[in-house]
Design a protein that fits this description.
The protein is an alpha/beta fold. It is 44% helix and 24% strand. The chain contains eleven helices and 14 strands. The strands form four sheets. The protein has a six-stranded mixed β-sheet with strand order 4-3-5-13-6-14, with helices on both faces. Keywords: DNA-binding, Transcription, Transcription regulation.
């Protein structure tokens, strides 16, 4: 049978009203047009679907079967439309978000949670990368957008500052540099370090900076969490580097001293970065708007 959705709606309207005239009104069709379509449906079915009476119509057994399946089809169509609209409005699907360690650890959880709670059918895959790797992924089309440090060049991408979070030098309370107001990274390259675990994006970035200075960090122990890093530093195991938010969070419990790093790469702000707002998926646009990124393209373009 070559029935379309309009045919099914008309047939159900007639069946529910018990009248072709009333059904035509419900379906917004002229009586003549409705009658012609009903005859075409019956011809296509090869059997009578309606029994005509002087004051209305009733369903034949075949007509009752068609009405049953028509209701199921229309219900499924409504469900499909709803699901597709959810995808279109960013409330369903899978969002892949790339971010550096600081964003994943400190910034995103509190900002992402309320947004995600309003979208129970949306999944988010978080990918931890260094800021440089996030920029490369966006340029290569492997990522729509990401959260990066503004200390990293992002030529050709649009960036919008979402948080301030400079890196700090973490020291034991009795360390000879503990009274300093600021330090240069070169001042501490000879120190024993408490580092984050291998593969951690921030730690990778720090070790790359040391390599650029011609040094290799003397790592005594690697910790999986910032809390563990702060605990070790507080006990004098070594020095470490962490975002200011982390230092403030664990300073009292661990006894660490946080001293500002004067290097430009440490004076970082977290930025949402993307290539073109118009090409972003609905979920990504929704998330960036939630993070206060300017949809009117007011974001900084780094060229």
């Amino acid at each position: 049978m070559r029935l379309d959705i309009a045919d099914l709606r008309l047939f159900l309207a007639v069946a529910d009203a018990g009248s072709i005239t009333a059904g035509a009104v419900e379906a917004n069709l002229a009586l003549g047009s409705a009658s012609e379509r009903l005859r075409a449906i019956e011809t296509d079915a090869g059997t009578a679907l309606l029994t005509r009476h002087p004051r209305g119509v009733s369903l034949t057994e075949a007509g009752a079967a068609l009405a049953h399946h028509a209701r199921l089809i229309l219900q499924q169509q409504a469900q499909l439309r709803g699901e597709l609209q959810a995808f279109a409005h960013g409330a369903r699907g899978t969002l892949h978000l790339y971010a550096n360690t600081a964003a994943l650890t400190n910034y995103l959880p509190a900002r992402l949670a309320p947004w995600l709670a309003e979208r129970p059918r949306l999944r988010v895959e978080l990918h931890e990368r260094t800021s440089t790797e996030v920029v490369r992924a966006i340029r290569a089309g492997q990522a729509e957008a990401g959260i990066i440090s503004d200390a990293v060049p992002a030529d050709g991408l649009r960036r919008h500052v979402v948080a301030e979070d400079p890196l700090m030098m973490l020291l034991p309370a009795g360390h000879r540099f503990a009274a300093r107001r600021s330090l240069d990274f070169s001042d501490v390259l000879g120190e024993t370090f408490v580092a984050l675990a291998d593969g951690n994006a921030l730690q990778t970035y720090i070790e790359e900076l040391a390599a650029e200075a011609g040094r290799t960090l003397d790592v005594r122990i690697r910790m999986k969490t910032f809390e563990g890093l702060c605990t070790m530093v507080g006990h004098g195991i070594g020095v470490g580097i962490a975002p200011r938010t982390i230092a403030r969070q664990h300073r009292r419990a661990t006894g660490i001293v946080a001293v500002a790093l004067g290097n430009a790469w440490a004076q970082r702000r977290l930025c949402a970065a993307f290539a073109d707002w118009k090409t972003l998926s609905p979920p990504m646009r929704s998330l960036l708007l939630h993070l206060d990124v300017d949809a009117g393209m007011g974001a900084e373009k780094n060229v």
